[in-house]
Records
---
Amino acid sequence: MCSVVGYNGPRPCRQMILEGLSRLEYRGYDSSGFACIDSTSKIAQVKTQGGIEQLSLKIAAQQGQKQELNGAIGIGHTRWSTHGVSSDINAHPHFDCHKTTAVVHNGIIENFVFLKEKLQLLGHHFISQTDTEVVAHLFEDELKNQSLEKAVLSVVTKIQGAYALLVISEKYPDYLIAIRKSSPLCLGVSSTETFVASDVSAFAGQVDQVVFLPDESFAIISKSGYHVYNFFGERIYPPVQKSTCTWTAEGKAGYAHYMLKEIYEQKRVIIDTVNFLRSHKSAGMQQLNVSHELIQELKNIHFIGCGTSWHAGMIGEYFMQEIAQVSTQSFLASEFRYKKFFPYPRTVTIIISQSGETADSLEALRLLTASEQPTIALANVASSSMVREADGFLLTQAGQEIAVASTKAFTAQVAALYLLAHWIAYIKGLVTTQAIARAEEELFVAGEILENSIERYKFDIITRIAPQYAHYKNFIFLGRHISFPFALEAALKLKEIAYIFVDCYPAGELKHGPLALIDAQTPVVLFSCLDETIYKKLYGNAQEVKARSGHLIVFAFEHQKDLIALADTVFIFPKVNPLLAPLVMTGLVQFFVYQIATLLERPIDRPRNLAKSVTVE
Ligand code: AGP
C-alpha cells in the first residue's frame, strides 16, 4: 500500500507530484521521495524517512544547491514498508549503480532475493534492503542495448509479484515508463501532458480524462502522448474515459483529526446512502447489474472482505437471512483465496471494500470472475479496480474517508446492506415498497440516534470515562448474535488507533476458557442485543463476569434494566429495529475509543504500521 505519482509534460512537475502524493498519503506514509530529469537531462532526486511534509522540508533545505528539482518529467512515492525498515536509504526512488535510472514501486517483487543475488554476481552493488531496487538494476542492464519497449518486456519477464512501477532514465530523458501488474495504475491525460498514479484522485482537477491501465500492461509516456502495450509487446488501446473524480481539499473542517470529523459525518452519510439507493429503480440499484430472475432463484449470498469490511459483511449476514430469506455467509478474503473453492450455483458474491483496491479482496474477486461466479463490488470509490472488475457494483456514499481507521465507510456499508436486503426481499415478493420506505426511515432514525448518543455522553466520556480506562493494557469485548461482529469492529478500533490489546469473543464462548482471563485489570465491554432470547443469554454472560469480580462496561438499550444494573459503566440507547442495534452504537464506541487514543497521544489518523488501503498481500 504505497503510492506512486508521475508526470510528463511541459510543466515543472515537482509541486504537482507532491500534491498528488499528499492526496494519496493515507495509503502509506513511513517514507517518501521524488526524482525528475532536470534541464541537463540528469536525474535529480530527494527522498526521506517520513511523509510528504518531511519531504517538502528536505526539498526546501536543498533549494539553490547543486541539483535543481524542477524537471518536467518526474516520479514520486509514499511508502508503507514491506521489505526493509522505514529509512532514508529504503525510501523510494531506488537507483541503479550509476544513479542514471530511478524507480518507484507499489507492490511486492516476490523473487527479488533471487534476482538480487544474480545481479550482484554480475557486479551490481545494492544499497537498500528493499525488493524494488532490483528493478533499477535490471533496467540498467536491459537499457544498454535495446529499445525502451524491449527493455520493459525483458524486465517484466524476469520479475514476479504485484507491481505498479514508474521508471525514468537518463538514457531516455524524454520518456516516463509506467508498468502495471495487479497493483492499480491509471493515466490522467490531456492533449499536452500525462499524469500517472496509483489512484485517479492524485491528479483530479489537473486533467479530466483518465485511462485505467489494464493488468499486465505498460505505457511509454512521451511529451506528445503515450503508447500502451501488453506484456507480449502488442500495442493496445485502453479506453479514454471522462474522469468523474473531484478533489475537495476540505481538510479537517476544524476537527482535531479526520477520524473525529468522519465520526460526525455518519448521520449525513446514512442519509446520502439511502437517498442514492432510494428506490429499487434508482441508478444506484441498477448498477448492481443482477437480473431479477437470478434474485428470485437466489440460493446463497457470500460476502468477502477484510477488516472492517469483513465485519460489515458479518452484520449483513443477519440482514440477508432475516429480511431477504437467503442463506448468507461471510468470508475473510485472505482466507477465502486459499481454501478449496466450489463454484456455488445460484449464488451472488458481494466483495465489500471501502477502497476497492485491497489486494486480498481484489484477488478473491478475480478468482470468482475466473470461475464465472456473479460478483458485486460494494465499494466507496467509484474509480476503484473492484468497481471496474466486478459484474456489478453498489456505491456507498461515504465520501472520501481519510483516517486509516474506518468509521463512516463502515456505517455506509451497513446502511447499504440493510437496503439491499430489502431490495432483494422486494424482488422475491417477500415485502412491498412500503417495507423499503420503512427501512429507509429506520436508517434515518438510526443516524439520528447514532449522533445524539455521542452528544449525550460526550462530556462524560471526555472528562471521566475515557481517563478512567485509558491506562488499561488489555480489554475483553463481548457480543452475541448480531452484536458479535459489531464487537469485533469495536475491538479493531481500539487496537488500531489506541494500540491497546483486545480479545473479542462471542459471549457464549466465555465459559469455554476465556473466563479465566477475567480480573480487575481486564475490563469487559459487552454489546447488548435487542433480540429478547439473545438478551437473556447476554445478561447471563454479564453475571458470569460480575461473579468473578470482573469490571463491566455495557452498551445496552433503555428497557434492559437488569443488564444496566450490573454495569460499572453503561451507555444506554433507545430501542430500534433489532437488526439496527449495531448501527446506533457505532458512533459512541468510535468516539469512546477516539478519546482514549487522544489521551494516549496516538497519531490518530495515521496509526503506526498501518495504511488506509492495503494493496499488497
Ligand atoms: C479498518 O479500520 C481498517 N482500516 C482496515 O481493517 C480496513 O477495513 C481493511 O484494510 C479493508 O479495507 P477496504 O475496506 O478498503 O477493503
Note: Residues 433-469 form the longest helix (37 residues).
---
Amino acid sequence: MRKLIVANWKMNKGIVQSQQFAEELREYTEKHKITHCEIVICPPYTSLEAVHRKLDGSSIAVGAQNVFYETSGAFTGEVSAGMLKSCGCEYVITGHSERRSYFHETDAIINKKVMAVLDEGLKPILCIGETLQEHEDKITEAVIEEQINHCLAHIDSDSVRNIVIAYEPVWAIGTGKNATPHQVEHAHNFIRRKIKKIYNEDVANNIRIIYGGSITPDNASDLFSSNTINGGLVGGASLELESFIQIINSAKK
Ligand code: 13P
C-alpha cells in the first residue's frame, strides 16, 4: 500500500504563504518525480481554493481540517461538505482531538460529519486516540474501540473503504514526544482487528491507518518502515517546506 502523507497546517498560513508552499511543493514533486506516496495538504478554510488552484492537475490532493454535517441552512460560521468539494477538496479531517477538546465534538457529532463527507464522495480522515491520562491508565484499547464503534456507526462496508483512520494519541500531539513505532504498530493492529470484526477481512486489510503525533524528519523513517503504518498526519513539521519534504522522502522504501 502506498503511504499517505497528510499536512495538517491547523490555524496557520494566510493565502500568500499557502500558495507559495503549494507552488514550491508541486515544483519539487514534479522535478523529483515523487510517486512513492500520496500527499495531501490541509490548509485553513480560507486558503483551500487558492491551494487547490496551485495544485490542480498535480498528484497532490487538498483536504479540509473540519466540516459541518448539515448540507446548508442557518448555521452561521459553518461550512458543508458540498462547499468543501466545490473548493477542490478530496479529503476532510474529522474528529481531530483539538476539535474534540476545544469545540466539544463528541463521537456522535463526528459520526455525522463522517457520513456527510462520505455522502459528498469525499474521503474522511477520522482521527482517534487516547489522552495522556488514558494512556497512563492503560485503557488505550478500550478508548479507541469506543471511538471506532461510535464514529463508524451506520457506515457500511462499501463506504468505510473510503475512510482513512488516523491514530493520533493526544499525548503525542504537539509535544515533541512521538509514540514509538512499536506502540503505533500495537494500536494499528488493534484497530485493524476491530475493523475486521465490524466489517470483514478484506476491508480490514485495505483500510488505510496512518499515525499522527510529533512526526519529524528524525523519526519519520522509523515510523514509516513499518508495513502496519500506512502513512502520517503531520502538524508542526508540515509548516516548513524543507521538513515536510524530508518526511515525504522518509516514506520511500
Ligand atoms: P504535530 O505533528 O504538531 O504533533 O501535530 C499532529 C497533529 O495533530 C496532526 O493532525
Note: Residues 8, 96, 168, 173-174, 212-215, 233-237 surround 1,3-dihydroxyacetonephosphate (CB under 6 Å).
